[in-house]
Prior knowledge:
8 strands
Amino acid sequence: MEKAVFISNNDITLEAILSESNRKEAAVICHPHPEFGGTMYNNVVKAIHTALFNYGYTTLRFNFRGVGKSTGRYDKGEGEKKDVEACISFLERLSYKPFLIAGYSFGAYIGSDVAVKDDRINTIILVAPPVNMNDFGFLLTSDKPKLFIAGDNDFVCSIDLLSGIINSTPGKKEFHIIKGSDHFFLGYEDEIRKRINDFLLRMNL
C-alpha cells in the first residue's frame, strides 16, 4: 500500500511516500541534487523503489528539505544527512526495521555517508555516486554490503575514480557498469531494476 506521509525533523517537515509491504525490513531512498531538479519522483528513484518493493521491502521515498512540500532550504549536505536520519527513525517508530539505504547521485553521497555510521542500516546501494565532486573516503571504513551502479558515459561519476574507491572498500560489494548510459539513465531504468534485484538475491538479503 502506498501513501503520502509527512515526517518531522525538528523544525523541518519532510514530504514522503511510504510503500508498505508485508516484510518488516525497510529501505530509505534518497533523490538527486535539490538544486538541479532532484525530487523523489525522479526516474532513477522510481526504478530503485520498484526493484526494492517488488523484492519485498517496504520503501520510503522522500523529498529533502526545500524540495516539493518539504519545508526549509538546501543545506549543502549537512541538514540533508539529518533528513535521512529522520526517515530512518520514522520507519523505526512504525515498527519497521530500517535495513537498507539506496541513493542516486547526490542522494548516493548523502545516504551512504549516513549508512556507514548508522548501526540500523545493513546494506548500501549507490547509483551514479558523484565521485568527481565529493569525497567518498568514508566508504573505506565500512564493511557493509554495497552495490555500485554507474553509466560508462557519466560526467560526474568517473569509472576510474569509482573503481579505485570500490577496490579499497572492505566487505561484500558489486559494481555494475551500464554501457551507453550517462548520468541520467534515461531508457536504462529496467537494467537498474535488474541489477538491484540480482544483487539482493545473491546477497540473500
